[in-house]
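Q: Given only this backbone (263 positions), what sequence would you predict?
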């Protein structure tokens, strides 16, 4: 991890701890004030009114509570699934280990998003496997070097950057490179091929043609320190909020019993 990344992560963590601490303190203060109001009798009319309404619409209220609980659970589970998947995408490596374990990648540029008008070979060969920025694409283990074909979409590394482009030209072994093929690659949306030809050793994987649109933006967010902190804050809220709500409800029940007995 670079020094800047460490700095950003530390800053986000400090900000998160401060934010959570202040939030919990404010919620605790509000809860304590609510309990004091309930014990003092200032909320008796509202408590009695809520009780009568709950008795009248008990089934409806129970149904509404179940719907809210179900919705909250689905949202939280969805966030956790995206978070876990983002970790898998981040840490599953650049090269698929075997043909049965694919590697999922987030597309971060639009170089394969459309067919450039000058790239007539795309139309002539009915090549419609383009993908957009922030799509999640599925890649698999490369075939043997001699099995790579014209118009395959592959992942290759150039100056430490992973690029996903299409093979638009293949130079077979010759006197200049007797032991390997040279591959010319180009993004479908680009007017010109990539500057440098690519060898098989530079390639990491091949695109399977399967993609999930737009999910990548959420995955990139979840991979960031802010995304991690959002998940942690959601977990804290899910744990703390019901505890404080239960305390308030318990005080309301006690006050209601006292109010009824007093009458």
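A: Predicted residues:
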């Amino acid at each position: 991890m670079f020094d800047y990344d460490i700095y950003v992560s530390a800053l986000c963590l400090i900000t998160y701890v401060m934010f959570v601490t202040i939030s919990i303190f404010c919620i605790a203060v509000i809860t304590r004030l609510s309990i004091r109001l309930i014990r003092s009798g200032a909320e008796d009319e509202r408590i009695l009114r809520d009780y009568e309404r709950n008795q009248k619409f008990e089934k409806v209220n129970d149904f509404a509570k179940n719907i809210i609980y179900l919705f909250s659970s689905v949202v939280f589970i969805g966030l956790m699934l995206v978070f876990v998947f983002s970790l898998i995408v981040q840490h599953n490596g650049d090269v698929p280990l075997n043909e049965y374990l694919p590697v999922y990648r987030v597309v971060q540029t639009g170089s394969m998003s459309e067919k450039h008008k000058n790239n007539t070979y795309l139309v002539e060969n009915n090549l419609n496997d383009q993908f957009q920025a922030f799509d999640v694409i599925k890649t698999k283990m490369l075939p043997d070097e001699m099995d790579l074909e014209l118009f395959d979409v592959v992942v290759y590394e150039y100056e430490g950057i992973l690029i996903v482009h299409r093979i638009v030209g293949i130079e077979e072994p010759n006197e200049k490179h007797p032991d390997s093929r040279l591959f010319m690659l180009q993004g479908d949306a680009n007017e010109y091929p990539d500057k440098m030809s690519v060898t098989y050793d530079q390639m990491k994987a091949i695109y399977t043609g399967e993609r999930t649109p737009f999910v990548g933006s959420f995955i990139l967010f979840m991979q960031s320190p802010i995304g991690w902190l959002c998940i942690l804050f959601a977990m804290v809220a899910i744990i703390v909020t019901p505890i404080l709500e239960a305390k308030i409800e318990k005080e309301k029940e006690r006050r209601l019993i006292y109010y009824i007995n007093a009458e």
